Amino acid sequence: MKTIVYQGIDGSFSYLTAKRLYGTSCQILGFPTFKEAFEAVEKGDADLALLPIENTLAGTIYETLDLLAQGTLKIVGVANTRVEHSLLGIPGASIQSIRKVLSHPKALAQVARFIAEHPAMEAISHYDTAGAASDVAKAKDPSCAAIANSAAAQTYGLEVLAQGIQDHAENFTRFFLISKEATIGKKCSLCFTLAHRPGSLAAVLAFFAEHDVNLTYIVSRPIVGKPFEYMFYVDLETQNATFIDGLRKNTNSLKVLGTYNVIP
């Protein structure tokens, strides 16, 4: 039986995504941090890591990108999960009684409008949405609540005080499946560095256009130790090795993070 690892605990969106994709066919294990989940696959203790890469409201999860750029694992699949956030409290709590709201920083960013509409509530960062729900259940404090999915309420014996509180209904998180073994697919993720001179990025973007390659995602990250120089991460729709070899000639360095398909 394969082992799938993720960051978080039972009831988190990562856990629910892993369950949706693999059901009972795999062992699913949670780790406190992204790095520990990633390293479990690197060490051979797990077959796949499921890590979030982007949320449509809160943006990129940079830690996943950094692990891929620095590590040896490859992206072997991508899956999208609809995210609906709820305010969870202990039985007997109410929206009016809540003073502290715990959740992962990305989840808090996705419900910023709801928090702003309730000025008595203080947002407090937590390592995990489901972990926040677990801690609220343990505290048994009617002034504390968690932002998590409604399934976590059932898992930890909480009540849903408000449902669907994300800033926008069309809220999705994109997850990468990451493995030691590379695959071949219709999508490709790369990271690259460029010469620190005017026009270097424009030349690369022009190369995409010239070869009719659809660029679906681009983001930059500062390079540690090189002030104001950046690593670029891109997703594109191609499996053409010749194109990638040509692109490599327009960069200082290039790493293929994986070629893969979308998992429904």
Compact description:
With 264 residues, the protein is an alpha/beta fold. The protein is 29% helix and 35% strand.
Name the structural class. alpha/beta
Give the count of helical stretches: 9
Order of H and E elements: EHEHEEHEEEHHEHEHEEEHEEHE
Quaternary: single chain
Which blocks of ≥5 consecutive residues have pLDDT under 50? none
Considering DSSP H and I runs of 4 or more, what fraction of the residues is helical? 25-40%
- Second CATH tier, the architecture of the largest domain: 3-Layer(aba) Sandwich
What's the total number of strands? 15
Describe this entry's structure for a reader.
There is one protein chain. The two termini are 22 Å apart. The protein has 264 residues and is of the alpha/beta class. The protein has 3 domains: 90 residues, Periplasmic binding protein-like II (D-Maltodextrin-Binding Protein, domain 2); 78 residues, D-Maltodextrin-Binding Protein, domain 2, CATH 3.40.190.10; 69 residues, ACT domain (Alpha-Beta Plaits, 2-Layer Sandwich). Helices cover 29% and strands 35% of the residues. The strands form 2 sheets. Strands 1, 2, 3, 4, 5, 11, 12, 13, 14 and 15 form a 10-stranded mixed β-sheet that branches. The radius of gyration is 20 Å and the shape is globular. β1, α1 and β2 form a beta-alpha-beta unit.
Topology summary:
Blueprint: E1 3-7, H1 13-22, E2 27-31, H2 34-42, E3 48-55, E4 59-60, H3 62-70, E5 74-82, E6 86-89, E7 100-103, H4 105-110, H5 112-116, E8 122-125, H6 129-139, E9 144-148, H7 150-156, E10 159-163, E11 172-179, E12 187-193, H8 200-210, E13 214-222, E14 230-237, H9 241-248, E15 253-262
Parallel strand pairs: 1-2, 1-3, 5-15, 7-8, 7-9
Antiparallel strand pairs: 3-4, 3-11, 5-11, 6-9, 6-10, 12-14, 12-15, 13-14
